[in-house]
Amino acid sequence: MQRLFKPFQLIFALGAIMLLASCGEDEPKKEEEITFETNPDAFCAANPFDGQCCLPKYDVDCYCSEGTNATDDTENCCLFNYNPTCFCEANPEDAQCSQNFGVDSGLGVIFDFENTAEPPADLFDPAQLAQYDGDGSITAIEGNHYYSLAVDLSDPDNPGWSDFKYWPSKMDDNPDNDGEAQIDLSGLANPHLNFWVNSGQDSLAITVAFRVNDQDYDKDYLFKAGTAGEWKLFSMDLSDVTFRTNYGDPTGKINELVPEMKFQMLKVVFRSATWVFADPDNTRYNANIDAISITDGPIEQLPWVK
């Protein structure tokens, strides 16, 4: 009887083993947990917003937005959105790096000095020293040309001043409308007069004046220390600058003096009179001007545009 049961015991044991093996195969294997330390690539693919993934390899936007990375890490963050100076110095021809000279705003550019065949409109230059492009040592900030007056302050031929004017009614073919106020700024919400100047290593002074009803409203700009050979932008908020009346004492804001904001002309004066520069170290006057515009809103000087 004992021998009779042994084969059945063997069969039963084998069946139990197979059943256990079958159950083991059906159970899913437990996946190994992915961590940044064990597999950073896989971890950051699955967890892109985890702070550990704020690295150039995984999220350059996050990385370049952190702390001073944008300016300190020029290898990874030399991108227009984070370090435009770095990007544009490396990619000066990129469209994102172009300087806005006010072409599509307000009245736009009123003097670009590109027509060198004729002097600027209504030029007053008694000593005939003003000229395009000076001695040629300075490159134009816009286009290929600019306008200049260079003179030793003690030179007996120093004219004291030279000027040119934006005078639309006098620049047209009608000789009878010169007194009309055709510079209309009344439709501009935030009118700005913009111009670039460069004095090389010398000194310069420029006066800008708006005229209406034969009365000038003017503002001086003195650069006794010069601009160190670089183009310097002046973007003048016409609602915030105090003007003089007929070159006298300061009077008020131009939009208070002329509420209608309509003018006959804009005069740009090279003020080279010796008395303008009382400092004996200032012995030479050198004024270079380019890209004069009237815009609705200011223009920003881009740091990579020299």
UniProtKB/TrEMBL annotation:
It comes from the Bacteria. Keywords: Signal. Residues 1-21 form the signal peptide. This is Uncharacterized protein.
